[in-house]
Design a protein that fits this description.
globular, 8 helices, alpha/beta
Length: 253
């Protein structure tokens, strides 16, 4: 019974920003549980390289580039989904633009560029998903937010601000599209052992681990497991919520 709850066989999953990092790890977990995964990021060669690696392992995957900051690109990937698959069961909004800038140095062009990706991109990827999911009477939308949504980070004010907006977005989509069997939830990751952590000095890494009750950085696959839960029938009665996956970091100053 437990295995059946997490079985994604026959389902189509689209994961944005999945040519590396948490997105790639998430796509791998979903594929390992039976989903056909669409690897998506801005560059087609990067998407196809990851998808080919998955296929070499016997997993079902394809690569399709999409810059979610551009509406025409969003329209293109949903046209492909409609024509090639006729469905979408799982959308994982993971792609992000995170400028490193003080608030006073954040000019309007940068703000609008970040807004296009981090809010408008998630919004229109989600509305595109809804059109397919309504027809099948079921679907799961999962936004990868951040612990920064509840604990802002210096130099990442835009990132923190727009991640906070995803809370209202998930709740609104959950309310409006729940009657169609569509669920919407957020995941708030803490610090994970991805390429971003490579910038840490050994001292900085030890400090980060010391500020986490579990005393380690997260493994990227652990975000994949959280996504798997929210994508699967195991969470069939969960919508409009935010799941913090941070090793308890939010508990400490």
């Amino acid at each position: 019974m437990t295995d059946k709850l997490f079985d994604l066989s026959g389902r189509v999953a689209l994961i944005t920003g999945s040519s590396q990092g948490l997105g790639e790890a998430t796509a791998r977990v979903l594929a390992e549980h039976g989903a056909h995964v669409i690897i998506s990021s801005r560059k087609q060669d990067a998407c196809e390289a990851v998808a080919a690696g998955f296929r070499d392992r016997g997993l079902s995957a394809e690569g399709f580039a999409c810059n979610i900051g551009h509406q025409e690109a969003i329209d293109g990937i949903y046209e492909h989904l409609a024509n090639s698959h006729g469905r979408l069961d799982i959308l994982v909004n993971n792609a992000v633009l995170s400028p490193w800038r003080t608030i006073e140095d954040t000019d309007r062009p940068l703000l609008l560029k970040a807004l296009e990706t981090n809010v408008a991109g998630y919004w229109y990827m989600s509305t595109g998903a809804v059109k397919l999911m309504k027809a099948q009477g079921k679907g799961s939308i999962i936004n990868i937010s951040s612990l920064a949504a509840i604990r802002p980070t210096m130099m990442l004010a835009l990132y923190s601000t727009f991640k906070t907006a995803l809370d209202g977005m998930a709740r609104s989509f959950a309310l409006e599209f729940g009657p169609f069997g569509i669920r919407a939830n957020n995941i708030l990751p803490g610090l994970f052992d991805t390429s971003l952590a490579d910038a840490f000095t050994p001292e900085q890494k030890r400090e980060a681990e010391a500020k986490t009750p579990l005393r380690r950085l997260g493994d990227p696959s652990e975000i994949g497991h959280a996504v798997l839960f929210l994508a699967s029938d195991a969470s069939a009665y969960i919508t409009g919520t935010s799941l913090v996956v941070d090793g308890g970091r939010v508990l400490l100053n």
